[in-house]
Amino acid sequence: FAAGEGFRTQALRYTRLDIGSGLAGQAARELKTLYIADLKTIDNPILSKSIAEEKFISYYGVPLFGKDQLQGVLEIFQRTPLAPDPEWLTALEALAAQAAISIHNANLVESMQQSLKETNALYRISQSLASSLDPDRLMQDVVEVLYKDFGFYHVQIFLMLPDGNALVAGHGSGEWGKRLREEGYRLSVGAGIVGHVAEIGEPFTTNAVDQVLFYISNPLMSDTQSEM
């Protein structure tokens, strides 16, 4: 759900559908307008329950397809029977096409702005690397730039101990980073994602930490979903 108007309840505001799931997901999968004259006839208990108080009767789902890419689905719910003529439907699909292009352009601008933001952050880091003689200050600058400019949940630098068997938390973002450093939080080489990367000497990224067998959860960051 991205935006809506005319609803009496908040039920649909929390909708998240896979492609092919639900009415909007069906319109997205088939890339064609979906018309339901009477919503009581659909076999979708979850949707029927969520819109029960809305008293909807008719439905139109129009794919927002523009720039050779699906941008979303425009849904129209009506509390009275809806049987528009072909001219109305043509106008609706033309409107949907324009909306798709607008969304695509907005996403493109946002992507460009984010790319510029990241480029500037990397430039600032490279400048610090070239000019700083204080390693503590340098590490803290790197952490702060990554944390604030990239919007990461948490950023932490781990330093290898002289014996080469473990890593200790160095500078980190926010109160968690400060606490981990002050407590001397350690991970053995090979333990957790940090220890795994130290052991193999290669980058590692996951978008589902709970599926990584060697992942070690930190109670301070229980909302972690992905890690790099």
- The largest beta-sheet arranges its strands as 1-2-3
Secondary structure: number of strands: 6
Mean pLDDT: 89
Q: Please bin the fraction of helical residues.
A: 40-55%
Q: How many H/I helical runs?
A: 6
Output the helix-strand order: HEHEEHHEEHEH
**SS-based structural class?**
alpha+beta
**What global shape is seen?**
elongated
| Largest sheet data | 3 strands, antiparallel
**Cα gyration radius (Å):** 25 Å
Strand content: 15-25%
Span between termini? 29 Å
Low-confidence stretches: none
Describe this structure in words.
The chain is an alpha+beta fold and 228 residues long. It has helices at residues 22-30, 45-50, 86-131, 135-150, 174-182, 192-200; strands spanning 34-36, 58-66, 69-78, 156-160, 166-172, 186-188. The strands form two sheets. The protein has a three-stranded antiparallel sheet. A hairpin with a 5-residue loop joins strand 4 and strand 5. Helix 3 (86-131) packs antiparallel against helix 4. The two termini are 29 Å apart. The model has no long low-confidence stretch (mean pLDDT 89).
